Amino acid sequence: MTRFSRPLLAAVLLLPAAASVAATLEVRVSNVAAGKGTVNVAVCDKERFLKQCLYSASAPASAAETIVRIEGVPPGTWAVLAYQDVNENKELDRNVLGIPKENYGFSRDARGSFGPPGFEAAAIQVNGDMATAAIKLR
After folding, report:
1. Spatial contact of 80 and 133, defined as CB atoms under 8 Å apart
2. Is 12 helix (H, G, I), strand (E, B) or coil?
3. What pLDDT digit, counting tens, does each position of 54-93 carry?
């Protein structure tokens, strides 16, 4: 083997291991009104919390609990938020005061006093190849 091929061989052998680092996050959303729109889920790091989250997915609203799976979430600390998009406009509808009109919730059942909870209150750890988060819509 030439001296250039060994690093290339090592990189090729390590590539599958690096690709398997990301997890599938299974989000179990409860208190869902069956058959009404979709359940949208977003996974955010601290920097993008309540802004443009890095990972998202949705599923049709089903009886009592809807499971949404998000692939490719790297290990780390994340906050998960979900809402039931009854009218399927891909937005959390709000009234004139900015209060959500559609049911929503956060991981760890985090709630804020006057507004959304902070990142730390909703933060979960994602490690390994599978993780779960439970969210109750309110």
Report:
1. yes
2. helix
3. 999 999 998 889 999 999 999 999 999 999 999 999 999 9
The pTM for the full model equals 0.83
State the Cα angle at 65 between 89 and 38, rounded to 5°.
10
CA–CA separation, 128 and 138 (whole Å): 30
Q: By C-alpha distance, which of 83, 68, 81, 66 is closest to 122?
A: 81
* Chain CA centroid to CA 73, Å: 8
**Residues 61, 87 contacting (CB under 8 angstroms):** no
Q: Which of 104, 130, 126, 125 lies closest to 116, judged by CA?
A: 104
Residue 59 near residue 67, CB atoms below 8 Å: yes
Lowest mean pLDDT among 10-14, 101-105, 109-113: 10-14
| Residue 62 near residue 29 (C-beta atoms within 8 A) | no
